[in-house]
Amino acid sequence: MSPTTVIATLRLFLHDCLLPNDCDASILLSSIAFSKVERNANINHSLPSDTFDLIIRAKAALELSCPNTISCSNILFDATCDLLTMLGGPFFLVFLGRCNGQTSLAFAVSSHLSTPSMPISQITQLFAKCGFTVEEFVALSGAHTIEFSHCFEFVTNLSNNTSSSYNPRYAQGLQKACADYKTNPTLSVFNDIMTSNKFYNAYL
């Protein structure tokens, strides 16, 4: 299992669980005519499609062994716990018996998820509403402590070095690495060069 799969699964889980319907796998639902679902919200466009496929394949395999028993919500919850533990993240007890959500609305997503341009104070409040400590939200909002971040997600914060929160040398390095992000939207950089395969709350 690659670290990329771990971070993609974590992001999928986080984007599902921070919404009011609370970890119901409603992010897996597909759109129908005239109704966009959570996975079609702009902020979710960067979620890798193979992560959705991972959960669907697991569900299909379980249906062959024990039909109508394990929900996609349980699968996503359990898979996230196991994958995080593999990379040094915290273990948390998974209670089974969760049901899949039946409602999924794209317009309800943006107000519940953090963005690269959001002030720290606002992100803190967002995660505090869900019961997370500062240490926990730092690890989760910096989920890219594993693997990489896409340049287009943060490069506007580096324009003309307007952000005093960046170390000048680090900002220059990011600008150089992301110079061609407009022609190559997949361009990415490691946030944590030394321990890119370890989950914790220390990263650049």
Automatic annotation (TrEMBL):
<protein>
    <recommendedName>
        <fullName>peroxidase</fullName>
        <ecNumber>1.11.1.7</ecNumber>
    </recommendedName>
</protein>
<feature type="binding site">
    <location>
        <position position="195"/>
    </location>
    <ligand>
        <name>Ca(2+) 2</name>
    </ligand>
</feature>
<feature type="binding site">
    <location>
        <position position="38"/>
    </location>
    <ligand>
        <name>Ca(2+) 1</name>
    </ligand>
</feature>
<feature type="active site" description="Proton acceptor">
    <location>
        <position position="15"/>
    </location>
</feature>
<keyword id="KW-0349">Heme</keyword>
<dbReference type="InterPro" id="IPR000823">
    <property type="entry name" value="Peroxidase_pln"/>
</dbReference>
<comment type="similarity">
    <text>Belongs to the peroxidase family.</text>
</comment>
<dbReference type="GO" id="GO:0006979">
    <property type="term" value="P:response to oxidative stress"/>
</dbReference>
<keyword id="KW-0408">Iron</keyword>
<dbReference type="InterPro" id="IPR010255">
    <property type="entry name" value="Haem_peroxidase_sf"/>
</dbReference>
<feature type="binding site">
    <location>
        <position position="24"/>
    </location>
    <ligand>
        <name>Ca(2+) 1</name>
    </ligand>
</feature>
<feature type="disulfide bond">
    <location>
        <begin position="151"/>
        <end position="178"/>
    </location>
</feature>
<feature type="binding site">
    <location>
        <position position="145"/>
    </location>
    <ligand>
        <name>Ca(2+) 2</name>
    </ligand>
</feature>
<dbReference type="GO" id="GO:0140825">
    <property type="term" value="F:lactoperoxidase activity"/>
</dbReference>
<dbReference type="GO" id="GO:0020037">
    <property type="term" value="F:heme binding"/>
</dbReference>
<feature type="binding site">
    <location>
        <position position="26"/>
    </location>
    <ligand>
        <name>Ca(2+) 1</name>
    </ligand>
</feature>
<keyword id="KW-0575">Peroxidase</keyword>
<keyword id="KW-0106">Calcium</keyword>
<keyword id="KW-1015">Disulfide bond</keyword>
<feature type="binding site">
    <location>
        <position position="16"/>
    </location>
    <ligand>
        <name>Ca(2+) 1</name>
    </ligand>
</feature>
<dbReference type="GO" id="GO:0046872">
    <property type="term" value="F:metal ion binding"/>
</dbReference>
<dbReference type="InterPro" id="IPR002016">
    <property type="entry name" value="Haem_peroxidase"/>
</dbReference>
<feature type="domain" description="Plant heme peroxidase family profile">
    <location>
        <begin position="1"/>
        <end position="204"/>
    </location>
</feature>
<feature type="disulfide bond">
    <location>
        <begin position="17"/>
        <end position="23"/>
    </location>
</feature>
<feature type="binding site" description="axial binding residue">
    <location>
        <position position="144"/>
    </location>
    <ligand>
        <name>heme b</name>
    </ligand>
</feature>
<keyword id="KW-0560">Oxidoreductase</keyword>
<keyword id="KW-0479">Metal-binding</keyword>
<feature type="site" description="Transition state stabilizer">
    <location>
        <position position="11"/>
    </location>
</feature>
<dbReference type="Pfam" id="PF00141">
    <property type="entry name" value="peroxidase"/>
</dbReference>
<feature type="binding site">
    <location>
        <position position="192"/>
    </location>
    <ligand>
        <name>Ca(2+) 2</name>
    </ligand>
</feature>
